[in-house]
Amino acid sequence: MKVLILAAGLGKRMKSKYPKVVHKILGKPMINWVVDLGKKFGEVGVVIGHKAEIVKSYLPADVKVYIQEPQLGTGHAVMCAKEFISPSDDVLILYGDVPLLKEETIQRLLETHTNAKANATVLTFIADDPTGYGRIVRENGKIRIVEHKDANEEQLRIKEVNSGIYIFSGKFLLDNIDKLTNNNAQGEYYLTDLVEMAENVETVLLDDPVQVSGVNDRVQLSQLEAVARERILKELMLSGVTVVDPTSTFIGPDVKIGIDTVIYPFTILEGEITIGEDCEIGPYTRIKNSILGNNVKVIRSEVEGAVIEDNVSVGPFSRLREGTILKENVKIGNFVETKKSTIGKNSKAQHLTYLGDATVGEDVNIGAGTITCNYDGYKKYQTFIGDSAFIGSNSSLVAPVKIGKGAIVGAGSVITEDVPDDALALGRARQIIKENWAKLKREAMKNANHKE
């Protein structure tokens, strides 16, 4: 099956300089929710129009893109992607601003369509207030869609309405798409007219209309995010994850979490994340696009683009930036920042430290206030710290530099040259003592103030 996603609209009511379909639900652009669903059923094509380059930048490389300019209705959008349609494949029509459709709903639609060998199959639902929706009209064994503005009094009482989601036979679509006309008040070409042309039309009634809810403004965006969040959290809890307070927890659709992991309040997990078993995440923690092993603790911290192996503790108030790799049993403590650094097994950086562009061996102790000085204003440089080294507090390691295995760097040192294995390195000024200097200074200041 081919999957064609219509995503060319302007979205005026969003009041945004960005196209509607790139606005996010739980950190993921709406268009990507729909693309990921479509990929489960076949090759995906997307019709874009308004600010096309922005939308295109969010699409995976294997998605085919078609431009609709100007935007003259849903039928016109399909006309713009005719080369995507094959007479031997069915075509599923989806929308870039309808992100919550479920896989099992599409499967039902496809099974009905295939079993009936239909020209067209329409996903419908019962609307308590059908105002504005196209009505599903069944007359003389035929099914057609009558728009609200064209419906007579009897048709207006019909509550079964068109969702806009269809599966068409590819051959039927190619044979009839160019027969659509724009003889209507809007001067646009509508897919609904194709249903009336079809000889064999099927419908599938949806009992969960929120699945086909679209987004027209930011209020609706927030409403759908609430639905998506509830779905995801419920599924996680039923699969063995503890979510202490679902009302303050935000977890995206591409997050996988192992059993017996606990998610504490005010935690945000977005992007592609894998978290193992028996972990503790939060409170007040944000993780994005990262991999966490088993028995990992991340408390009051920020993690993005990191790999954290088993039995690691992070935080509170740590920041792991992209390219961070923490090996087993590492401890990263309060106010520690890492970037493009690998920290070896059993190593510790417990306080007030920056490790950037660094490779740290196993069993290393990084003292409080240590900084890898990795940037000279022009280029970034690497720091290497060997196994079992000890870096004293308040040390500055000026890259490029290597600290050997078992070496000790004295507290307060500025290290600019490589340190051999098992050596002691000191890089600080000699301490000077001036007896009674402080007392004399205080007396001088007191006398000066008294004269004034």
TrEMBL record:
Q: Which Pfam families match?
A: GMPPB_C, Hexapep, NTP_transf_3
Query: CDD domains given for it?
Result: GT2_GlmU_N_bac, LbH_GlmU_C
Q: Give cofactor(s), names only.
A: Mg(2+)
Q: Where are the transmembrane segments?
A: none
Q: Which domain of life is it from?
A: Bacteria
- Active site, UniProt feature: 351
What is this enzyme's catalytic activity, as reactions? alpha-D-glucosamine 1-phosphate + acetyl-CoA = N-acetyl-alpha-D-glucosamine 1-phosphate + CoA + H(+); N-acetyl-alpha-D-glucosamine 1-phosphate + UTP + H(+) = UDP-N-acetyl-alpha-D-glucosamine + diphosphate
Question: Pathway involvement?
Answer: Bacterial outer membrane biogenesis; LPS lipid A biosynthesis; Nucleotide-sugar biosynthesis; UDP-N-acetyl-alpha-D-glucosamine biosynthesis; UDP-N-acetyl-alpha-D-glucosamine from N-acetyl-alpha-D-glucosamine 1-phosphate: step 1/1; Nucleotide-sugar biosynthesis; UDP-N-acetyl-alpha-D-glucosamine biosynthesis; N-acetyl-alpha-D-glucosamine 1-phosphate from alpha-D-glucosamine 6-phosphate (route II): step 2/2
- Gene Ontology biological process terms from the UniProt entry: cell morphogenesis; cell wall organization; lipid A biosynthetic process; peptidoglycan biosynthetic process; regulation of cell shape; UDP-N-acetylglucosamine biosynthetic process
Could you state one GO cellular component term attached to this entry? cytoplasm
Q: Which InterPro entries match?
A: Bifunctional_GlmU (IPR005882), GlmU-like (IPR050065), GlmU_C_LbH (IPR038009), GMPPB_C (IPR056729), Hexapep (IPR001451), Hexapep_transf_CS (IPR018357), MobA-like_NTP_Trfase (IPR025877), Nucleotide-diphossugar_trans (IPR029044)
Positions of the region Linker? Answer: 219-239
Task: Name the positions where Mg(2+) binds.
Answer: 97, 216
Location of the Mannose-1-phosphate guanyltransferase C-terminal domain: 251-334
Q: Any binding details for the cofactor? A: Binds 1 Mg(2+) ion per subunit.
Binding-site list for UDP-N-acetyl-alpha-D-glucosamine: 6-9, 20, 68, 73-74, 95-97, 134, 147, 162, 216, 321, 339, 354, 365
| Stretches assigned to the MobA-like NTP transferase domain | 3-125
Protein known as: Bifunctional protein GlmU
Per the record, the gene is glmU
